[in-house]
Amino acid sequence: MNAAERFLSIVERLTERGSVRSVFGEPILSEGRTTVPVAKVAYGFGGGFGTDGRDRPADERAGDAADEIAGDEGGGVGGGVSVTPLGVLEITEDRIRFVRFDDRRRTIAAATVGAVVGFLAARRFDRRPD
């Protein structure tokens, strides 16, 4: 399998695993209401390849440890996916509304950081001479 085929294989697997439906399921139909999960899906990919420099002139690669091993090559590709639930759409005959999931951890973290920064700033200003 060449590098392009490996990369496409990774993309296909991540696309299957990183979709909203695979993470949260199908829309739910109940009592005249359809509930559709909403999420933020982010993908990241990277890759790199290299050779031992045999294509460089001999005087430029003199002393390289790779000179002792002929034909060294290497490479790799990788990727990742992140899925963050945001909320649900509730669809009825009368209206469509978005119900956001409350991320309390983020709110608590922001409040904690704010309190620490405020405390440190207050201490710094208290120590200044008049």
Q: What this model shows, in words?
A:
The protein has 130 residues and is of the alpha+beta class. It has one domain. Helix content is 34%, strand content 35%. It contains three helices and four strands. Strands 1-2-3-4 form a four-stranded antiparallel sheet. A hairpin with a 2-residue loop joins strand 1 and strand 2 (33-51). The N and C termini lie far apart (72 Å). The model has no long low-confidence stretch (mean pLDDT 76).
Give the tags:
130 residues, 4 strands, alpha+beta, single chain
- The end-to-end span amounts to 72 Å
Order of helices and strands: HHEEEEH
Q: What fraction of residues sit in β-strands?
A: 35-45%
Mean pLDDT: 76
Number of domains: 1
Helix content: 25-40%
Largest sheet: 4 strands, antiparallel
SSE-based structural type: alpha+beta
* Radius of gyration over all CA atoms, rounded: 27 Å
* Strand order, largest beta sheet: 1-2-3-4
What would you call the shape?
flat
Low-confidence stretches: none
Q: Would you count the extended β strands for me?
A: 4
Number of helices: 3
Quick overview of this protein structure:
The chain is an alpha+beta fold and 130 residues long.
Q: What topology emerges from the helices and strands here?
A:
Blueprint: H1 3-17, H2 20-24, E1 28-30, E2 33-51, E3 73-91, E4 96-100, H3 104-127
Antiparallel strand pairs: 1-2, 2-3, 3-4
